[in-house]
C-alpha cells in the first residue's frame, strides 16, 4: 500500500493550518494598530486640559465672589393651628428662607468649642 498520497495531504493540511494562523494573527495585529492610531487622532482633536503648573484664566466678567448668608428653616404649621393635617402637596417646597439676623454665630467664651479640645467641658 502506497501512503505517500496521505502523507502529502496531511502535510498540506498542516501547512494550510499554519498559514491560516499566521494570516489571522496579522489581521488581528493590523486591527490593533489601526485602533491605536484612531484613538490617538481622536485624543488630539479633544481640547487640552491644563497641566500641572498651568493656571486657568479668569472669566471675561471678572472674578466670581462667594456669597454667605444665614438660613433658617421654614416652619410647618402644626395640626392644632390649622385644625387638620396638611397633605404633602399643601406643604410646598421644603427648605429654608433667608434669616433676618445675618450675624455669624460665635462660640461662647469659656466653652470648649469642640469635643476633645482639652477644655473642661463645663460652661
Kindly report how far apart the N and C termini lie.
113 Å
Question: Strand count, sense and closure of the main sheet?
Answer: 2 strands, antiparallel
Q: Label the structural class.
A: mainly alpha
The string of secondary-structure elements, in order, is HEHHE
Give the CA-based shape. elongated
- The unreliable regions are none
Q: How many whole angstroms does the radius of gyration measure?
A: 39 Å
Nearest-integer average pLDDT: 78
The number of helical elements comes to 3
Q: Spatial order of the strands in the main sheet?
A: 1-2
Q: Please indicate the percent range of residues in DSSP E strands (runs of 2 or more).
A: under 5%
Number of distinct beta strands? 2
The helix fraction, in percent, is 40-55%
Structure characterization notes:
This protein is 41% helix and 5% strand. The chain has 123 residues and is mainly alpha-helical. The longest helix is centred in the first third of the chain and has 42 residues. The chain is elongated. The N and C termini lie far apart (113 Å).
Helix/strand layout:
Elements: H1 4-45, E1 71-73, H2 79-82, H3 88-91, E2 96-98
Antiparallel strand pairs: 1-2
Report a brief summary of the structure.
By secondary structure, the protein is mainly alpha-helical. It is built from three helices and two strands.
Amino acid at each position: 500500500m502506497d501512503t505517500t498520497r496521505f502523507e502529502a495531504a496531511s502535510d498540506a493540511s498542516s501547512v494550510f493550518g499554519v498559514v491560516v494562523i499566521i494570516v489571522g494573527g496579522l489581521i488581528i495585529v493590523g486591527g490593533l494598530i489601526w485602533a491605536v492610531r484612531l484613538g490617538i487622532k481622536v485624543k488630539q482633536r479633544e481640547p487640552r486640559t491644563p497641566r500641572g503648573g498651568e493656571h486657568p484664566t479668569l472669566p471675561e466678567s471678572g472674578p466670581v465672589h462667594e456669597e454667605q448668608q444665614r438660613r433658617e428653616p421654614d416652619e410647618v404649621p402644626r395640626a392644632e393651628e390649622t385644625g387638620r393635617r396638611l397633605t404633602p402637596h399643601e406643604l410646598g417646597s421644603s427648605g429654608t428662607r433667608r434669616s433676618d439676623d445675618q450675624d455669624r454665630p460665635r462660640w461662647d467664651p469659656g466653652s470648649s468649642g469642640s469635643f476633645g479640645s482639652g477644655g473642661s467641658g463645663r460652661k
